[in-house]
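Can anyone check this?
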Amino acid sequence: MSFTPKPRHRAAGRFGSGRSLSSVALVALFALSAAGSAHGAEQGNVIHLTQTPCQFLESEAVDHGFKSNAGADCEAINAKTGAERLAKAKVMTLKPGKYVFRVTNKNVPYELGFWLRSKGYDWRNPLHKLNKTSVSGGGLKTGDTKDYAVELKPGEYEYSCPLNPTPDYRLVVTAG
């Protein structure tokens, strides 16, 4: 199974030439918003991922309803179900390019993060830091959403959350 996320785009609007003070403020707010959208567009397509306890929803296509109060809970759950879930998980397929992975913490009661890396990446290997891809970050509290920008080249990747231990989901970037 594989899935190809569809990028989401924002529509731009236009304002008329007769402006009051309040419409000038609206134009200024719109300009700031458009600048933010343009910045996101420069970084590439946005891939939305949602984390619940011990899993990414989009990767498994089903909310297993796991309960977790700490990472150790997910480690125990994954020891029992992780291999089977990963075998059924969707493989994300993308084309080469710039992407923003927008990750949301949905109902995980502790801080979590996101880690996308080249398959086989070893953070202890200094050569991997020079010639392989690794993007990560933490601090996602319940309800928070964060963006992780990355440029992907053809090859195989994995993504997961080490703080809300999830399986290592597959991502494949095809040459064309």
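Reply from J.R.: I decoded it. The two ends are 19 Å apart (CA to CA).
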